[in-house]
């Protein structure tokens, strides 16, 4: 089985701040990491390879330094990796990103399964996975929390919904996005780290993909970011004290005063 | 301190530290409390290729030696002594094969240890045979194409959890110390069962158990080294494994030192962090000096072992004695710096202190090892070296 895992390098947003003057991300001192949801995607790909045999290719689109996430992917079990990188791809929205990745995937060959994280922690849209499925003409299942089985070219998964889960089946090839409940990603292995250090990671640019620069990057994007800002805090919360009945009485009085009830 | 580690050795040390901090740290208190064997962590170590470190490349290992094994053991021990010893015991249990096994035995057993599919253990100690190892009573009678084992081994680390056991037995009881042999016994061999699991002061998550042999037959092909060479095999293996226990001690001491520094910076008494008190500073400085000196000695001895030196009984014993004495002292002082809370199980230093105690006892009690060192000193003087 040929498996493709999509990974993105993102700023570690656990302690991210926006500069209130310029409304841009303060990048100083912020580490770049593999998008955590994509780490689950990679782990699931590697587990499927261990279960059914095959090959796992890691792919990422981004600036040259995004190669790091691909080396980390090889260290954690991917067989090989491809970087999609070109100045012309800069500023791409989800549509242009999915289009560019789909062109690369078509050139790389036929994959049985494409696995993405449910969303990135920097963009948070969760759109690239489904867009990629449409562009590749593959079926799509989002929020997969368990791969039950792959048999006779049919993939059966459990997908997480807000109020429960669904069991779904689809024929392969397919694109799926995974949630964090699906697995616990392994750490790299010593042999993987050694392989990652010497691995040759091919770079595909606009030329290699044979795409016109007007359909990729900012030029090929349907949306533009006009402004980023931190929302202003308009009101402060109030913490009620006392026993639970006292707090409830207090709360009801306050809501009445505010004419909410 | 610059120890001139190779790129590969640094990679091993860094990954072992990451594993310890990400996978062991969150569960160490619970494992200790429940006295539960860290199965899942052994799987993580296997996935990260840590069991390949000490196995030659031709048997799916990474070809490392004593120093590489020490680096992993130290890093694991810095976070949890139990995890470290469960790992290192697998190395001791297979070292017999690496050093004295036949090609067929190596091919048969080593790849599964390298992949982490099988854990190993080493069994010499018996109820009446501790420091006096030659007093063992377990026998292996030659019968047709096999050996029939009878007897019991005590205090066996990884007992019940390991799949492969290097067992020292008497094949010719009438010959005493020259009648012992080393045998590889696989778990699930008929007649091989497990007895009492020990309830220990420290290293509670590691399994320490009795092995019981009742007419247990193992193939003659499982003898490691020559018949009658059992004690020589055991003693030479201990010379190789003692730096590993010393590394465990260094790791425990390092963990305790770091915890003590952190706590001393936070704990306010008399309006200041206690690290500003000279008494505390003196203690911390002495702890740091001793930990670094122990580490330097352990690495130097591990390198001596890896250099292909023929004999290193003395050096290996020195590293084990010095590092274990350091671990006991440093962990005890860490509890002292923590004060009352250090004595509670809410903080990790009491566990480190409990774990450290055994490093002075096992793999040769320190008193027995000092006797061995003194013996070498006398011998050398007599030879006018």
Write a concise keyword list for the protein shown above.
heterodimer; A: 261 residues; alpha/beta; nine-stranded mixed β-sheet; two-stranded antiparallel ribbon; 7 helices; 25% strand; B: alpha+beta
Rough outline of chain A: globular
- CA-to-CA gap between the ends of chain A? 60 Å
Q: Spatial order of the strands in the main sheet of chain A?
A: 9-8-7-10-6-1-4-5-11
The tally of strands of chain A reads: 11
Give the low-pLDDT segments of chain A: none
**Overall pLDDT level of chain B:** 96
Element order of chain A: H for helix, E for strand: EEEHEHEHEHEEEEHEHH
Percent in helix of chain A = 25-40%
Approximately what portion of the residues of chain B adopt beta-strand conformation?
15-25%
Helix amount of chain B: 40-55%
Number of helical segments with 4 or more residues of chain B: 11
List the quaternary state of the chains: heterodimer
- Secondary-structure-based class of chain B equals alpha+beta
**Main β-sheet description of chain B:** 4 strands, mixed
Order of SSEs of chain B: HHHHHHEEEEEEEEHEEHHHH
Low-confidence stretches of chain B: none
Beta content of chain A: 15-25%
Largest interface: A-B, 9 and 16 residues
Topology:
The complex is a heterodimer of chains A (261) and B (385).
Chain A: E1 2-7, E2 9-11, E3 32-34, H1 36-52, E4 55-61, H2 67-75, E5 80-84, H3 94-108, E6 113-117, H4 128-136, E7 139-151, E8 154-161, E9 164-171, E10 174-178, H5 190-198, E11 203-204, H6 206-209, H7 244-257
Parallel strand pairs in A: 1-4, 1-6, 4-5, 5-11, 6-10, 7-10
Antiparallel strand pairs in A: 2-3, 7-8, 8-9
Helix pairs in contact in A: 2-5, 3-4
Chain B: H1 7-24, H2 28-34, H3 39-47, H4 66-79, H5 81-100, H6 103-114, E1 120-123, E2 139-143, E3 146-157, E4 164-170, E5 180-186, E6 192-197, E7 208-219, E8 223-224, H7 230-266, E9 268-269, E10 272-273, H8 278-306, H9 313-338, H10 349-359, H11 366-382
Parallel strand pairs in B: 1-4
Antiparallel strand pairs in B: 2-3, 3-7, 4-5, 5-8, 6-7, 9-10
């Amino acid at each position: 089985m040929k498996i493709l895992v999509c990974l993105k390098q993102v700023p570690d947003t656990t302690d991210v701040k926006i500069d209130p003057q310029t409304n841009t991300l303060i990048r100083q001192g912020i580490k770049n990491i593999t998008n955590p949801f994509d780490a689950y995607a990679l782990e699931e790909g590697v587990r499927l390879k261990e279960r059914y045999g095959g090959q796992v290719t890691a792919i990422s689109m981004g600036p040259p330094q995004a190669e790091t996430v691909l080396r980390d992917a090889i260290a954690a079990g991917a067989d090989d990796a491809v970087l999609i990188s070109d100045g012309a791809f800069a500023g791409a929205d989800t549509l242009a990103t999915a289009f560019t990745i789909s062109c690369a995937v078509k050139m790389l060959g036929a994959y049985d399964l494409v696995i993405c994280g449910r969303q990135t922690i920097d963009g948070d849209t969760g759109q690239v996975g489904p867009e990629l499925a449409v562009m590749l003409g593959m079926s799509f299942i989002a929020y997969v929390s368990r791969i039950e089985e792959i048999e006779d070219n049919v993939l059966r998964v459990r997908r997480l919904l807000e109020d429960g889960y669904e069991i779904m089946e689809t024929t392969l090839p397919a694109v799926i996005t995974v949630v964090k409940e699906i697995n616990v990603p392994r750490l790299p292995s010593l042999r993987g780290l050694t392989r990652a250090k010497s691995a040759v990671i091919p770079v595909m640019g606009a030329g290699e993909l044979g795409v016109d620069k007007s359909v990729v990057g900012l030029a090929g994007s349907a949306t533009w970011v006009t402004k980023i800002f931190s929302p202003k805090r308009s009101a402060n919360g109030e913490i009620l004290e006392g026993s639970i009945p006292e707090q409830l009485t207090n709360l009801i009085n306050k809501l009445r005063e505010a004419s909410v009830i | 301190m610059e120890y001139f580690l190779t790129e590969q050795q640094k990679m091993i040390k860094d990954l072992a530290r990451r594993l310890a901090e990400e996978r062991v740290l969150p569960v160490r208190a619970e494992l200790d409390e429940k006295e539960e064997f860290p199965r899942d962590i052994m799987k993580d170590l296997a996935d990260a290729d840590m069991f390949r470190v000490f196995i030659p490349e031709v048997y799916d290992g990474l070809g490392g030696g004593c120093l590489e094994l020490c680096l992993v053991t130290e890093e694991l021990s810095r976070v949890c002594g139990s995890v470290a010893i469960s790992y290192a015991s697998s190395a001791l249990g297979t070292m017999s094969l690496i050093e004295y096994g036949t090609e067929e035995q190596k091919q048969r057993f080593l790849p599964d240890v390298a992949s982490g599919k099988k854990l190993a253990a080493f069994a010499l100690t018996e109820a009446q045979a501790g420091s006096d190892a030659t007093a063992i009573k377990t026998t292996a009678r030659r019968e047709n194409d096999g050996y029939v084992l009878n007897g019991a081994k005590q205090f066996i680390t990884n007992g019940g959890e390991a799949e492969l056991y290097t067992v020292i037995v008497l094949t010719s009881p009438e010959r005493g110390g020259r009648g012992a042999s080393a045998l590889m016994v696989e778990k699930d061999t008929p007649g091989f069962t497990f007895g009492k699991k020990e309830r220990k002061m420290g290293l509670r998550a590691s399994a320490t158990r009795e092995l019981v042999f009742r007419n247990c037959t193992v193939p003659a092909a499982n003898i490691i080294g020559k018949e009658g060479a059992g004690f020589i095999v055991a003693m030479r293996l201990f010379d190789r494994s003692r730096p590993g226990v010393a590394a465990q001690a260094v790791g425990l001491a390092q963990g305790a030192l770091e915890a003590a520094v952190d706590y001393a910076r936070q704990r306010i008494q008399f309006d200041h962090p206690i690290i500003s008190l000279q008494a505390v500073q003196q203690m911390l400085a002495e702890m740091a000096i001793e930990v670094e000196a122990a580490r330097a000695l352990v690495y130097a001895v591990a390198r001596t072992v890896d250099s292909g030196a023929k004999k290193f009984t003395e050096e290996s014993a020195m590293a084990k004695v010095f590092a274990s004495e350091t671990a006991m002292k440093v962990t005890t002082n860490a509890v002292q710096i923590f004060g009352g809370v250090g004595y509670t199980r809410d903080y990790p230093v009491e566990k480190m202190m409990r774990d450290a105690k055994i490093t002075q006892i096992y793999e040769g009690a320190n008193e027995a090892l000092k006797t061995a060192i003194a013996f070498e000193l006398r011998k050398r003087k007599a030879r006018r070296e």
